[in-house]
Specification:
alpha+beta; 9 strands; Cyclic Phosphodiesterase, Chain: A
Length: 181
């Protein structure tokens, strides 16, 4: 069995800016720099033998490169006790179309539909115990204007994930270039 997800990488300069946000919030389990990505579709545990079928479905996708930007910070859920702190994504229709194409292609391989609606973000931290509301409010206000320059997304990737006590370790299994066709 292998645990898989489809994601977009972010440039090193964006990771540097995101890492700078990873401080000054009690109870946060901050994401490491090498874990920062935008998940397009979590696949979950599949048989190793299914990897070729998934790869073929993703290889067949045609999508043009597009611009993307990280801007704003927030948390899930939007009301109540925070469980996840995130950096928001601005990419418009192109990102949504790519994610929908990936979702459809994976469903055609027999995977069930993703039960949650797609909400593009990069996870900055998780909370086992929610932070004090005043500290979270201060953090969100301090970083309300956060943004980085946009960049061109030119590929998406299939990753495997190995869970351990020290956190998840991601391995890029395949890459799929975006091309004007």
């Amino acid at each position: 069995m292998v645990r898989l997800f489809v994601a977009l990488d972010v440039p090193d300069s964006v990771k540097d800016a995101l890492v700078a946000l990873c401080a000054d919030l009690p109870a946060a389990r901050w994401s490491s720099r090498d874990q920062m990505h935008l998940t397009l579709r979590f696949i979950g545990e599949v048989e190793d033998s299914r990897l070729a079928v998934l790869d073929a479905a993703l290889t067949a996708l045609a999508h043009a490169p597009f611009l993307m930007q990280v801007a704003a910070v927030g948390c899930f859920p939007p009301r109540g006790a925070a469980r996840v702190l995130w950096a928001g994504i601005q990419a418009g229709r192109a990102l949504m179309l790519l994610q929908q194409a990936i979702e459809t292609a994976l469903q055609h391989t027999g995977l069930p539909p993703e039960p949650k609606p797609f909400s593009p973000h990069i996870t900055l931290a998780r909370f086992k115990t929610p932070p004090p509301p005043a500290a979270l409010h201060t953090y969100l206000e301090r970083h309300a204007a956060f943004s980085v320059p946009e960049w061109t997304v030119s590929a998406f990737h299939l990753y495997s994930s190995q869970l351990s006590a020290g956190g998840a370790r991601y391995t890029r299994e395949r890459s799929y270039p975006l091309q004007n066709r």
